[in-house]
Amino acid sequence: SPAPPPADEHDLKSMVAWALSHDGPVAIRYPKAVLEPGLSNRFGEDRLPVTMGQCEPLIDGPDGLIIGCGSLAGSCLAAVEELQKEGLNVGLINARFIKPLDKDTLLKRIQMSPWVVSVEENTLQAGFGSAILEAIHDAALQTGPIRRLGIPDQFIEHGDRADLLSSLTLDASGIADVCRELSGQTATAAVAAPLQD
Q: Quick check: is 2 in a domain?
């Protein structure tokens, strides 16, 4: 069944309306924290409607690509805006669906990008970023470096959400730092190259 993670209040409302018209079960992965309306503040209410399995490309940028998933899409936007001030033009996609994955849009954008960062407030192991790597492998694509940001497979201490996200490089500052690092290493070998039989 589809599992859309809303990025903000606009996404949540749109996903609930979509789920009510969908013929089958839907699991909306809503966050427990209050989210800032980052995407709606920048793009308004005239965003793409929620369509089964389709992501939402928000910003085109030739210098790299961030794919934000769910509750961290606003932090991804803040990172993109921070990098723009430094002259780094990074693209941004709001994933909207973990399953089914919008392989057509994502793989096309990934191929055009010198590097990619996937960001999720979810486990890295078998998470959204892993699904992207599987899609790249299955399509036998050669890509630039790909970095997955998410929750590592280890015990995470209890604490303030903002502090925890910062410690895991999942806040806007940490995401921007990873992008800066990748911008300096775009000539390295592809991380997600397919295996040879």
A: no
